[in-house]
């Protein structure tokens, strides 16, 4: 049986190293994705708790809903402040789904 040449052995070794690196990178990416998903789930859980607490705000101020609180607060803003607020809201809503998911309370 013929022994592989030095070049062939070098290419096989090089390919094995590249293959191992690809497997390692794929594993790292999978782990990173899992951590991001876990973080988003934690944010959603915390947002749920915050939403529960926020639902108590209107009744503490003799209002019916958060929408009523928002409307009262919007009535206190100057036109420039309203424009800045609306621009901020638009910017957040224009972002892709992942940041929006982390910024919006679960429904």
Offer a few descriptive terms.
107 residues; mainly alpha; 5 helices; 81% helix; 0% strand; elongated
Q: What's this, in brief?
A:
With 107 residues, this protein is an all-alpha fold.
Descriptive overview:
This protein is mainly alpha-helical and 107 residues long. The chain has one domain. Helix content is 81%, strand content 0%. The protein is elongated and about 90 Å long.
Mean pLDDT value: 78
Number of helices: 5
Order of helices and strands, N to C?
HHHHH
Helix content: over 70%
How many structural domains?
1
Distance N terminus to C terminus? 69 Å
Output the structural class. mainly alpha
Task: Sum up the overall morphology in one term.
Answer: elongated
Detail the topology: elements first, then pairings.
Elements: H1 6-54, H2 57-60, H3 66-76, H4 79-94, H5 97-103
């Amino acid at each position: 049986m013929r022994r592989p040449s030095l070049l062939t052995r070098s290419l096989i070794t090089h390919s094995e190293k590249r293959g191992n690196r690809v497997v390692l990178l794929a594993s790292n990416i999978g782990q990173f994705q899992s951590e991001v998903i876990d973080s988003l789930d934690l944010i959603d859980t915390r947002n749920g708790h915050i939403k529960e607490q926020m639902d108590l705000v209107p009744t503490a101020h003799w209002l019916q809903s958060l929408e009523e609180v928002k409307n009262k607060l919007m009535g206190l803003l100057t036109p420039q402040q309203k424009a800045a607020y609306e621009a901020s809201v638009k910017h957040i809503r224009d972002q892709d789904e992942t940041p929006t998911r982390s910024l919006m309370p679960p429904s």
